[in-house]
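> call design_seq(struct)
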């Protein structure tokens, strides 16, 4: 669970840098398997939730066997929350104005996650111009217009 909390901080930092008045996301533990208490704290169901505890119940439970997998899971959970609860697409590629996806770095456009280990720190990936890595998760740049303090309007899904 510590890995997931660390990943929450990384994804929140990307959100704070790229969205004005970004919501403070939290990890909400819905259910914990008490038979594992004190043995292994990885037996629980948790989601990314908003400041008031709202979350999207149809998403995948957060899962963090490694730091990279935790980042992958939390980044997708944050996107699910923002898309399904706040109706906001985030993040947006500034070059192509597309919503982006969570992937390992350097994937081909037709790449599909088929389970298993996340080989390295995941990135925000944009399908524009044949596909490109926008940024390593945790290193998303502030939008270029941030100096004017104009929020980047998220595209409605
Ligand atoms: Zn792009």
């Amino acid at each position: 669970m510590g890995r997931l909390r660390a990943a929450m901080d990384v994804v929140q930092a990307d959100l704070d840098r790229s969205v004005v008045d970004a919501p403070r996301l939290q990890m909400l533990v819905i259910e914990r398997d008490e038979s594992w208490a004190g043995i292994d704290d990885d037996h629980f169901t948790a989601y990314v939730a908003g400041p008031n505890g709202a979350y999207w119940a149809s998403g995948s439970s957060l899962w963090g066997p490694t730091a990279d997998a935790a980042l992958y899971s939390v980044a997708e959970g944050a996107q699910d929350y923002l898309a399904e609860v706040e109706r906001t697409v985030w993040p947006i590629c500034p070059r192509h104005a597309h919503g982006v996806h969570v992937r390992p770095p350097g994937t081909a456009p037709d790449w599909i996650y088929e389970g298993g280990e996340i080989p390295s720190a995941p990135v925000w990936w944009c399908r524009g111009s044949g596909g490109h890595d926008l940024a390593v998760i945790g290193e998303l740049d502030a939008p270029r217009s941030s100096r004017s303090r104009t929020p980047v309007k998220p595209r409605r899904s």
